[in-house]
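FORM 7B: Structural annotation worksheet

SECTION A. Query
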Amino acid sequence: MKPNNTYIVYLAKTNARVFYMLDKKKYFMIMVPALILAFLFQFFVPSEQRYLGIVFILAGGVIYYLWVHIEKDKQKD
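SECTION B. Predicted structure
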């Protein structure tokens, strides 16, 4: 079975939206401090626990997408 061209175009458009940054100001408000904290964490923590610095970056991403999702829901109402 050969895929339909419209289906391929639809998939390309939907996948492109997955990684689209909605609000750059909010993203940088959250991620710049998270990166600074992660960088500082690398220097002030014992060497066995340095890998935990990534937690700040992951938490920043989660906070950003939650913030954007909550604001998008508020705009729908």
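SECTION C. Observations
The chain has three helices and no strands. The two ends are 43 Å apart (CA to CA).

SECTION D. Sign-off
Analyst initials: ____
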